[in-house]
Design brief:
By secondary structure, the chain is an alpha/beta fold. Helices cover 36% and strands 27% of the residues. A hairpin with a 4-residue loop joins strand 7 and strand 8.
Length: 214
């Protein structure tokens, strides 16, 4: 079973820890704030009150044996950078670090973070896209150019098969799944008919998805 550690239990860190635990993974939650640790204690595998800036204390957690460590330290930019450095020096195979700004993100990458995330910026982008696109319900950005979106089937596609809708030909996108009420149809075929109210899970270039979502 995969093991993850989350350092910093603010809103982002707590959400990541809870989600990973609910997915069935072993999760170690770490923070200097005892109340935050206690809040998560019943929901994750282990929750400990440790100062991540204390290198010896950090080493004692055995983090090099974890599949990934998420550095979700809040506003303290210096601490997040130094903890990232220490984790890489310890031999942690994958460090995912939360960044506050583009500059902070660049520094985290320079010191060895394997992945940098911008929760506030990315959530803002998702909300803006959802407001601007009448049919798009949710979006997962895979890269600056490609995304996966959930969108309500546009009226012009209803009662047409995927082949007749010409989504692949006209928009260059791929329908990965169709959600119909409680039913989820994975990898629907070209002859599969789209019904009113269907939610399509679609992969493609961001600009093409925007056009498709209206």
């Amino acid at each position: 079973m995969k093991q993850f550690a989350v350092i910093g239990l603010g809103r982002f860190g707590s959400s990541v820890a809870r989600t990973l635990a609910r997915m069935g993974y072993e999760v170690l939650a770490v923070d200097t704030n005892e109340d935050r640790v206690n809040d998560l204690a019943e929901e994750v595998t282990y929750a400990v009150c440790v100062d991540a800036m204390d290198e010896q204390a950090l080493k004692s957690l055995g983090l090099r044996n974890f599949d990934a460590v998420i550095v979700a330290i809040g506003q303290d930019v210096q601490s997040s950078i130094l903890v990232t450095v220490m984790l890489k020096e310890m031999g942690v195979p994958r460090v995912v670090a939360k960044a506050q700004t583009e500059l902070h993100g660049k520094v985290l990458q320079k010191v060895g973070a394997d992945m940098v995330v911008f929760p506030e910026r990315d959530m803002g982008v998702r909300v803006a896209h959802a407001l601007a696109s009448r049919n798009i319900l949710d979006e997962i950005q895979l890269s600056p150019d490609y995304s996966i979106v959930e969108l309500v089937a546009p009226p012009e596609f209803v009662n047409k098969t995927l082949q007749e809708s010409a989504m692949r030909r006209e928009y260059g996108v791929t329908v990965l799944a169709i959600r119909r009420g409680e039913e989820i149809i994975i990898s629907p075929g070209a002859k599969h008919e789209i019904k009113e109210g269907d939610v399509l899970v679609v992969l493609g270039r961001v600009d093409r998805l925007r056009a498709l979502g209206g």
